[in-house]
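Section 3.1: Structural characterization of target chains.
Under the original work plan, the team committed to producing a structural model for every single-chain target entering the pipeline before any wet-lab resources were allocated. The record below documents one such target. The sequence was received from the expression subgroup and is listed exactly as submitted; it comprises 250 residues.
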Amino acid sequence: MGLTRKRRTRRKNRQLGGLLAWVAGAVNAGGFLAVGRYTSHMTGIVSAVADDFVLGHLTLVIAGLAFVGAFLAGVITTTVQINWARRRKLHGEFALSLMLEAVLLLLFGLLGGNLNVLVEVFVPTTVLLLCFIMGLQNAIITKISSAEIRTTHVTGLVTDLGIELGRLLYWNRTHAANLEHFVRADRDKLQVHATILLLFFGGGLMGALAFKTLGFFSTVPIALLLMAVAAPPLLLDLRAYRARLGRYAA
């Protein structure tokens, strides 16, 4: 599919953005059913921290700050990986973080099976893991698309969609498009935002239904899909590395 290859096109960026929006919706919805928290919604978590601080719930304040920190750590990890791979001119500069996300989703499935054993330990750990994964993912598509596409939250997406719909519905008294105050909707952007929003919603539906039916095992197909998308450029880098080792050995 080439969705994570080094050479990018707007079409590939949008295809990858759509896939990751679907994944984010599925993980977010399934994660809520698992641990009772939406782990990509940093706005809500920060607001909850403020509320808990005023109410004197210091333990919840610390937990909320840890969740934000985990999301931030995911963003930092992706940024470091991309810059590290870019300096070495690797094919998988965007695939590294996606592969890490896939591995961590499998880990989420393994952690989830133990939630009933030590709830006090595994629930917070699982929430931190999911926040970290969402940070990883959002940074991947943000870096790839130069901040054109975000996949783990929809507030800005719905805002941009509303702006373009407002422009589309605006009645211009004249059809002279070169006038200073002529309003024209960006139909391309409108289509992209609407598609990402629908895919996020569709992923949420699928994630909730899959978790309700399969439990934590529902993360396995998602992880395998991400591995399949991330693997091609990483295999190219592995072959190049083995070829260099062969030349050194000779």
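Helices lie at 10-35, 42-55, 58-87, 95-112, 119-144, 155-169, 187-214, 219-249.
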